[in-house]
Amino acid sequence: MTFQVGAREQIDADIAIVGAGPAGAAAACHFGRAGFRVVLFDQRRFPRDKVCGDFVGPAALEELDQLGLMSQEIFRHATKIRNGALYINGESVVARPFPRIGNLRDYGLCLPRVLLDEAIVNAAVSSGALLIEEARVEGYESDKTGVTVFYQRGDCHNCLRVRFLIGADGSSSRISRILRGGKAPTRDRIVAVRAYFEGVCGPKDQGDLYINSRFFPGYYWLFPTGSGTANVGIGMPLESWTATKHQQMGEVLRNMIEFDSAIHSRLAHAKVRDKIVGWPLVTYNPRLPIVANRVVLIGDAAGLINPLSGEGIQYALRSARWCAETLLGAVYGDTVSLLELLPFARRVQAEMRYDMALSRFIIDLASYRFLNPLWLSALAVIAKRASTNADYYELAAGLFTGIVGAREFLAPPFLWSTARSGLATLGTAAMEMLPLAGRSGQNRTRLTDSIASMVKDAVAHPVTTIRWSRDCALSAFELATQMAISGAQ
Fold it and tell me: Could you please report the per-residue DSSP string of 183-235?
């Protein structure tokens, strides 16, 4: 391949991919194996770390299988997470083995990104892609015949002329900002931090999720990375974070470990191995474009992150495959204008929009912190039902991990089962409030105080209440629309 600075007429390669994370490297594999000349850019030199929860779920493992990577040593020796546990306010509410859904594995892997990303990049290079490391892509210009990509490497400013550009440069994507004309809305953003701990207690094949009223609607996790080591982190919607907290996220992580008895029991004698680091995530928004003339976005750059779980690896790998499957013919024929790229955008929406609409609706509901007692009670109902019913657990766990679709979650059997559990819980609470219970006065006072406190907080923060109502209305309308479309199909 030849690169000529300023040579705007000459085509140097077929495809440029900005960002060599899972999405970009996987796309380079798919297109490289199809015979295209691919150039893959990354700002760092491999192997390089990437801040992440490190959990690679069953759906992502299936994508890695299709790339032919699962037989490699790093995957065979990675820590297998076979069990999941959920804790609410320090109490265990469900602990079960991962469900087996379809042909997917009944486990995930906890694999540091320094290893995962290098494995996929090596596969991309083996497929014929040219990897240009330590290169900062500064922008691009597209026209009728191609795309000129401008990048800096060292002290040199260069440009590369290609037929087609794929933006896979993460949640802070420069390609996305150019294509969309600005940054992602605050409502679509999550902030998270993680640290590696050593001296961790407990089973090394169990991944834990923790929810606590002090940090809700955020959640935190512990994923073992080996014997006595674990990836521990916390994530929260940016709007909730900026509205309620004044601490650094690292400080919140430390406080959470001390405050929550469940995670403290696993980390009581553990020490941070490296520094606590954070990163931003941009979640899925179907209203934002992911295609333009000769340019597409995939993975985190397209915002293909589940707002409920923060999961992005499986969507990064899937979107790379969808891009190749949908656009191979267009790239072969050099017909990659906006019109010819729309099938990819429609594929992403068909695969993700309904599920992400449900996830967004749940997050918007839970983001109203003045109703935290209500949301946590509802979550406890679902979790306790899942702890005793394998089919129910399969659906609830599958929704959170992105394996089970919203259609199944919103099906009458699941909703009826949830409603029955909720009614049973309310019935138990009502019985406890009867005079014969002996504690009726105390319980009534507690209930009355809780309701009064929620109402008082809502009235005292009208702007927050109005914003929450607006966001819930928007997400409810989106979910209702997707339900109607699904029902009509």
Answer: PPPGGGEEEEEEEEEES--S-TTEEEEEE-TTTTT-EEEEEEEETTEEEEEEE
